[in-house]
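Please decode residue identities from the backbone states below.
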């Protein structure tokens, strides 16, 4: 009994740890010992859509990104930075398609049956409620809000993008999306190779 309880507990914890966001990163250069400092590009260079275009969301993105970079040994230097940081946060309404299974439920009915008892045949009626039968899929369309947070690291000397990390996910609750920003940014920077 205890073993089954622990298996169910582990399964519940494993499923609850799944993130509703997908994380990606692309890079053309390793960010190692050649970069020691960073600075934020002016606010006009970073873009945000309606949901993320407020001071709370901007502060959360900036603070989480700065903390993640400082944990990697970089320091904030607005005078002479090695890296320039820019972010883009968008929420778009898109249409998702999914296949919904279609079943045929035959109607329940009384059917005649033939039975034998003590050498004699007799007729009776039995109630039959058949199982549903899978007949295929039907494509459904649903409108969803899909959000993304993208962080760019730019080499100040060359002006080239050297790393881009982003997260994409469904945004059903705007308040939860803004509160999740620090966790999302931390997971984006887990993709940053040193």
């Amino acid at each position: 009994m205890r073993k089954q309880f622990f298996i169910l507990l582990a399964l519940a914890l494993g499923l609850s740890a799944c993130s509703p966001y997908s994380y990606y990163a692309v890079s053309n250069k390793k960010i190692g010992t050649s970069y020691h400092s960073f600075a934020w590009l002016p606010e006009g260079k970073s873009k945000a859509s309606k949901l993320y275009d407020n001071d709370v969301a901007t502060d959360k993105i900036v603070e989480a990104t700065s903390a993640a970079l400082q944990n990697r040994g970089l320091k904030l230097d607005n005078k002479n930075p090695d890296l320039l940081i820019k972010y883009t946060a968008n929420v778009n309404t898109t249409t998702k398609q999914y296949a919904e299974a279609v079943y045929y439920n035959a109607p329940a009915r009384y059917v005649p049956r033939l039975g034998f008892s003590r050498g004699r045949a007799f007729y009776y009626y039995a109630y039959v409620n058949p199982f549903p039968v899978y007949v295929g899929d039907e494509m459904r369309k649903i409108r969803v809000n899909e959000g993304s947070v993208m962080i760019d690291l730019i080499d100040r000397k060359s002006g080239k993008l050297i790393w881009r990390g982003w997260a994409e996910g469904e945004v059903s609750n705007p308040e939860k999306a803004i509160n999740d920003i620090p966790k999302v940014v931390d997971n984006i920077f887990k993709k940053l190779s040193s």
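Observation: Residues 20-95+143-189 form a domain with the Double Stranded RNA Binding Domain fold (CATH 3.30.160.670).
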